[in-house]
Amino acid sequence: MTIKATGNHSPSRLASRTGTTITTDKMLIITEGESSEWFKVHDGATAIVNNGIINGEGESCNTDLLVFGAKSNLKRNNIAITLDGAHGEGVVAERGAKVKIEDITINSTEEDFVGLLTQNQSQLKGKNITINAKAKNSRGVTALTNREVVIEEIKIISKKENFYGM
Asked: Would the pLDDT of 108 be above 60?
């Protein structure tokens, strides 16, 4: 399945409210809008995503996923993400969300990129993660305000200035 979102502030997939579950396998997602999310999961919904390719362009593009709100859950396996827009974020967990990712590669070519971000009482668990930040002012993993981050087997790569791994 291929999904292409071209509008600004547009999620290509949305899971909202308790009891909602989206499960996908072998999906190609393309976004070309400013401040777009490929997957947006909130208010207690669940998303399970396996074997996908995600490509995005646009300023402030939340490339892979935005998960927020208590009881919101996301599980991702075997995903390749490429972000070609400044101020992008690969995986974001906030406001009590729980995210579990495995076998993920996140590539960014533009400035001010964050690979993994968790904040505000959220949980992020990951295994076998590779983050390639190819522009300056980027961060591999950022954890803020009452969060839990557990990562096994992570590789964070950048050769540009002003880079923070974790």
From this structure: yes
